[in-house]
TrEMBL record:
Keyword line: Acyltransferase, Cadmium, Metal-binding, Transferase
GO biological process, one term: detoxification of copper ion
Descriptive protein name: glutathione gamma-glutamylcysteinyltransferase
EC number: 2.3.2.15
Length: 505
């Protein structure tokens, strides 16, 4: 008895050639012999079928991230850390993607905040020769992969915009292998690279912009070792706009005459929910997974975090930020800055919820979690000083779990809101001055160009220059700069970077 619905579609051939056909197999063997299928093996080992009709972008990205062996730093299910579509919602909610698909710009943002190195190209700002160069480069290596955004109609296929990775290249016939993530619809297939370029070069009616391709590779180091920018909350749009657009205008229109005044102009006008934008990266584990001693991996990561924190506090800019923070809190207390001067136990409650969010293997609002029984303890580190651990019970609905947050030690002492006795957080975590210093360093160089006082401009540029910083701090600042730049590009109203949707497979 026939059943309603669809079971796959016939692959229009030509122009496509089914990978599993006799011709497709021969093309594969030829490409293997010529060395342009090296990227194929890890991709095929991690091949993923999109789980929703509009998840082609998420499926393509999770497939590539797993092929590159990028550690998501959080659990998928059980004890396993693994990228899945359900975990890729830091730049757009899954419910929105399920209905509308994801734009090229948001997918670039998502790849970046998932730990990948990304280069993105629209066809209007690239060329077929450049595209072919990158396809060949990634086909000869397993260190990078290409994801394309194209229109199916060019291949006589049903549907419109679509994302899929390229699995290989046949140099003799100039063919690219598309590993179609909508495998329920079409199998992997070879297509002429010139025709693929044509499919990418079509204008997306929903944005008025050309489609394109992105080159994704593994970073030289794990990104965001101590600090990260968050686009999870909707407030990131206004905060990114403020930092990248409003701050340069404020500095240009305000008569600033010293460094403290510059810092005041920037921070006194911050959006009210700014504290959700930049956070320090916690080292989190479930209580039942850990013992009373640190593992070697945990110990090494904490050491790196503490070294970066020390390097931040040795910058000349940090001293100015610390003085500013002391002055704005001198009257017990400017409410805008309470989030940066909380005691460690108060911060612990928030961080435990964030940790539970990570451990859940999905990214949901931490407001859904209730933290209780938070305490600050010490763990033994063999041969070293004890490590501070924030422990708490986190309840989400009827589920309760224990969370441990390993806290990096700060070499400085953090005073309380009135500048008198040290608070409970003395020397124990990245405080407000540390975080805000890192953010100032991450602002683009052109931010300061509107300062009219030449001597002050020279001083500011000297303070924010990373040229002579230690390598670790340079990389941390550059990572934040890339994040900030990409977040600005990913803003919903920025059509220049909104390169196309994938509403249907």
């Amino acid at each position: 008895m026939a059943m309603a619905g669809l079971y796959r579609r016939p692959l229009p051939s030509p122009p496509a050639i089914d990978f599993a056909s006799a011709d497709g197999k021969q093309l594969f063997l030829d490409a293997v012999q010529s060395g342009t299928m090296e990227g194929f093996y890890k991709l095929i080992s991690n091949f993923q079928t999109q789980s929703e009709p509009a998840y082609c972008g998420l499926a393509s990205l999770s497939m590539v991230l797993n092929a590159l062996a990028i550690d998501p730093g959080r659990k998928w299910k059980g004890p396993w850390r693994w990228f899945d579509e359900s975990m890729l919602d830091c730049c757009e909610s899954l419910e929105v993607v399920k209905v509308n698909g994801i734009s090229f710009g948001k997918l670039v943002c998502l790849a970046q905040c998932s730990g990948a190195e990304v280069e993105a190209f629209r066809t209007s700002h690239s060329s077929i020769d450049e595209f072919r160069k990158y396809v060949i480069l990634c086909s000869r290596s397993d260190d990078c992969h290409v994801i394309t955004s194209y229109h199916r109609g060019t291949f006589k296929q049903t549907g419109t915009g679509h994302f899929s990775p390229i699995g290989g290249y046949h140099a003799g016939k100039d063919l690219a292998l598309i590993l179609d993530v909508a495998r329920f619809k079409y199998p992997p297939h070879w297509v002429p690279l010139t025709l693929l370029w044509e499919a990418m070069d079509r204008v997306d009616e929903s944005t008025g912009q050309h489609r394109g391709f992105m080159l994704i590779s593994r970073p030289h180091r794990e990104p965001g070792l101590l600090y990260t920018l968050s686009c999870k909350d909707n407030s990131w749009v206004s905060t990114a706009e403020y930092l990248m657009v409003d701050v340069p205008r404020l500095l240009e229109s305000t008569n600033v005459n010293d460094v403290r005044r510059v810092i005041s102009v920037i921070f006194m006008s911050l959006p009210s929910d700014f504290s959700e934008f930049i956070k320090w990266v916690a080292e989190v584990r479930r209580s039942e997974d850990g013992g009373q001693q640190l593992s070697n991996d945990e110990k090494q990561r904490l050491c790196v975090k503490e070294e970066i924190l020390r390097q931040v506090q040795e910058t000349g800019l940090y001293k100015h930020v610390q003085e500013f923070m002391s002055s704005v809190n001198s009257c017990c207390m400017n409410k805008k800055y309470t989030c940066w001067q909380d005691s460690l136990p108060e911060i612990a409650a928030r961080v435990c919820c964030q940790g539970a969010e990570l451990m859940a293997g999905r990214s949901v609002s931490s407001t859904g979690f209730c933290c209780s029984q938070t305490s600050v303890n010490n763990l033994k580190a063999v041969g070293d000083e004890p490590i501070t651990v924030v422990s708490g019970k986190v309840v989400n609905g009827g589920i309760e779990q224990g969370i441990d947050v390993l806290v990096p030690r700060s070499p400085s002492k953090v005073t309380n809101c009135c500048g008198s006795k040290p608070s409970d957080s003395t020397g124990m975590h990245p405080a407000g001055s540390d975080v805000l210093t890192a953010l100032l360093l991450a602002l683009p160089e052109e931010t300061w160009s509107g300062i009219r006082d030449d001597m002050l401009l020279k001083e500011i540029r000297s303070l924010v220059s990373i040229e002579n910083f230690p390598t670790l701090l340079q990389e941390e600042v550059l990572h934040l700069r890339r994040q900030l730049h990409i977040l600005k590009k990913c803003q919903g109203n920025n059509l220049e970077e909104d390169l196309g949707l994938c509403p249907n497979p």
